[in-house]
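Deliverable D4.2, example record:
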Amino acid sequence: MKVVIPGGSGQVGTVLARSFHKRGDGVVVLSRTENNSPPWRTVQWDGETLGDWTREFENADVIINLAGQSVNCRYTPENRRIIIDSRVKSTRVVGQAIAETERAPRVWLQASTATLYAHRYDAANDEANGSHYAEELATLESDLNDNKSQADSLEQLYKQNTEIIAESLREIQRFQREFEAVKAKVAIGRSLENLSGMMKSSITELQGMMGGEMGQSMQQLRQSAASGEGQMRATLDLAKEMGSGISRQQEARKMRGAVLFQEYKKKMGMVQPDAAATTGATPAPQPERQKIPES
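Output generated by the structure prediction step:
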């Protein structure tokens, strides 16, 4: 008997191929990847389009389709789409290949399914007891979607908070730089204030020193001026007194000179008649002047 197993490179397909081959049946496995290690024949196909692999369906007794993406994965939206599409497309192309054969196989067993069961270990998941978990799976899927939405919201909120924190850090750094600049200005201001205080203290001290010295100098100057004024006054008084005495002496000398001159004139007979008349005395006869003989 000739058995063709599309998608027979997986776990179930390998078990079937080994079993048929062991009992002496001809086995052909259709696989997306080429594999020459098994003792049966492996023919490559893509699971979507017709090709040379369709010749294997001629004179085949049984077709067992196991093709489809493995369900051993996370059931993300993309993986679920691939799980469904890989089974639908492979089933469609297998049907087309059978329809084009001259001698169709007597049996077509479609064993590729997309049924999802709950994750459980307390009982077997089969057609009888696994279907009632569909509602539970739908609820779980809805919860997962809700959680995803919440996760997306939290991620967006996290990004916003990260941006806010980054902006806050930048503001803090900017404030720190401004604060350091203000500290520097305050330090300079304090230094200038201390310098100003020192200058004021020095000026006050110099003023005190200079004020004391100038006060002493002014006091000495006043004393000297007062003493000089007294001396000047005394000198002026003395000069006045001496001037008065000199004037008196001069007057006295003048009077004495006049008297002496009058006496001299009397002695010399030089008194005028009117002067004699004025005095009431008879003028004495004037002696002749004697010439001094020339030697």
